[in-house]
């Protein structure tokens, strides 16, 4: 115990209760203390004096105590440095202000140029990755040794250390949740479909119905004729959801026995009639529910609330579970014409709904585009947003422009930003120009004033513009309008700020070399 | 003087202004921009119909002016403009200043000339006050302070008699006692009483720390009892500790003058009940002497002379009197002198200097401390510096800044300058070997 602590223990009790016992330090300090204690007869005053001497001497003689483990030295870097002040400043701003898409692009540009994130900004970057899962894959390659070293010292940043689940880790399959197992199975199927199938089949006996269905859907990745037997077996599953999932997968194998059976059933509904010199195809739903249909995951009674009648319900299911190609070959019509033909039928709702489902599960882009170009029959509703991920870029862009015209500019741009993944590159130059033209018109209108979505979306949209247009947009400034509301002007300024940052990321020396 | 973006952000009155300034530092927000040798100007579109006119006088330290209604100084527009120029100096066209800039620059020059004139006229200082009344006033104040000191001594002794354990009681009325010390015209004592209140009951070893602070306070009261017998430098130290410093005019007239190339090693700004205190720590490159420039501002942290950590300036200072003078006033300058270097002393020398400083004036706090070659890190005891000698020095650091300091060091030793309060170091700058980090801005 130090002298001061001995004294403090006595002072806590109070010298009125207990006469002080003076610590003996010896040396020059001890002499001073002895003198002081002799001079002061009042114990309280003496104790304060002694404490003062101890405090001052202790402060003057302070040396840091030994101990603690300094952190190990960070290994040398292999990536280039982003210490260039202008680059570091730009990174600091976009780190603080976003939008996320711009942050992702900055990370991508750094990685491509083999440059690491500046040390000074590592805590914020690691925090950003902690909050945004989407940015993590882009962040890892630019953290450098310093970033990994730092992340290893803070449990909150543990996600950045190690593989982070990017590689196959069998423990995710053995001990993970259903989603983790499904993700593992999906990755496994992508590299080795047969191995993935075996994994699934081995696990089957111990799985619940929900898990069986969830894992079965992962077989969609790398689906091939070899999977047919396993899927046929799943058609006999106890659980309805598993049977439906198996049927949906079997449809995607055009040569499967299942697909052939379904086509045969439809075949018997098809007829022909002659009308003014032309043979026309006609269609009548089945008269009765076949005895072997149930085994193929078809249902006899429509669920409660179903708008289709019983026979239409059977037709809808047959349509849904038949490969779309069958219609094209059998009717000798293109997708768009099949749809037109269906519209003329009395059973158009059952047909359209069946085709929509089939087009979505098989990601048939020409069919989806054909749907988008037509007005669906009354009573058929679908969410075109669900199509987006299956559509080729030009078709998406047409859809976005369409929504900008039909709903408003903010809705169309927001959809564009939502549907393109963070690492999804840019839109086409012609779309960018057309969209900016529409926004420019729209900004002058009254309703734009309260389109909060447009204000949020404009800076994000700036991240989707192809670099070739930067100069042109900077020079012409198509969105600037004197008559627009100040809040919109603010959004336009942010739009240009993002473009400026992007131009910088594409032109600044260490990053410009990243382009081929 | 050419600034770095980090140095510009050091000028920001708070973190929000720094962030807003960074956001505005894009040419898109500036319809007009221009610069000349000594000035920088631009128009920034705000929410109003008219753009704000922003101008910066670059002669000496940067001086800002903006037509926006913000009470902050410099405002975000000024910071953004300076940031733009610092980042891409060539992107701003060099032209003749427009009328609104030229007028302001001219008025600033006139004002500077007037002040210079005033200074030469004012010397020697006019002693208008009658020495007799001044002495009378001084005697009166000493009497009041003595009464306050006596009361405080009685109170301290009572506590030690009855047991300082009671002081952890949150009902202890520290404020009332501190207020009585203010009434006794001894704000230094009031400050120390409030500090006692902060120590009592907080932290495991609080009785020992509290008793140490009480002992040191009693030592100050002892010194004040013998005030008349003390040599005059010690008198000056005691007066400063009691919160009765000399008038600035007296310091400028009598204080020891020292001209040097002063390296700005640290700058700390703190707020207490809307009173902002700025401590700028300087070390003379030629003399190795320390100096502390202490400034106060009410309401907003607006200080006339900016000091950027990492710069070196040629200044003439006048020291407040004392046994080992530290606090000083700016007399002349600054002339730009380039970049600062971290002091070359060993840690052992630093501790020795510290011991001598405490021996000379035991009431000064905090002390400047330059720790060479230490590795920042984090352990169960919190943030710490691990010195080359194997010691562990506790740090006071905000979470985010601790990680930043660590990221910058990468486990390699760096020089750290800060304020040492006897228990913990508040780091204000880190060097490896050039300045890489500044802290302490609130």
Distance N terminus to C terminus of chain B? 25 Å
Give the ordered list of helices and strands of chain B. HHEEEEHHHHHHHHEEEEEHEEEHEEE
How many helices of chain B in DSSP terms? 12
**Main beta sheet strand tally, sense and closure of chain A:** 2 strands, antiparallel
Low-pLDDT segments of chain A: none
Count of DSSP strands of chain A: 2
User: What is the H/E order of chain A?
Assistant: HHHHHHHHHHHHHHHEEHHHHHHHHHHHH
* Greatest chain-chain contact: A-B, 72 and 69 residues
Mean pLDDT over all positions of chain B: 86
Strand order of the largest sheet of chain A: 1-2
Q: What best-fitting shape of chain B do the alpha-carbon axes yield?
A: globular
The biggest sheet of chain B, with number of strands, parallel, antiparallel or mixed sense and barrel status, is:
6 strands, antiparallel
Strand content of chain A: under 5%
Overview in brief:
The complex is a heterodimer of chains A (516) and B (442). By secondary structure, chain A is an all-alpha fold.
What topology does this entry show?
The complex is a heterodimer of chains A (516) and B (442).
Chain A: H1 3-13, H2 27-39, H3 43-60, H4 85-97, H5 100-113, H6 122-131, H7 136-139, H8 144-151, H9 170-175, H10 178-191, H11 193-203, H12 209-217, H13 228-234, H14 240-251, H15 257-267, E1 270-275, E2 278-283, H16 310-320, H17 324-331, H18 335-344, H19 348-361, H20 365-372, H21 393-406, H22 409-419, H23 429-443, H24 452-462, H25 470-476, H26 486-507, H27 509-512
Antiparallel strand pairs in A: 1-2
Helix pairs in contact in A: 1-3, 2-3, 5-26, 10-11, 12-14, 13-14, 16-19, 18-19, 19-20, 21-22, 21-23, 22-24, 24-26
Chain B: H1 5-10, H2 15-24, E1 32-35, E2 39-44, E3 52-57, E4 63-66, H3 76-87, H4 99-122, H5 131-162, H6 174-183, H7 187-199, H8 206-225, H9 232-242, H10 248-254, E5 256-272, E6 275-284, E7 290-298, E8 311-319, E9 327-339, H11 347-360, E10 367-379, E11 382-387, E12 392-394, H12 399-409, E13 414-420, E14 425-431, E15 435-438
Parallel strand pairs in B: 7-9
Antiparallel strand pairs in B: 1-2, 2-3, 3-4, 5-6, 5-8, 6-7, 8-9, 10-11, 10-13, 11-12, 13-14, 14-15
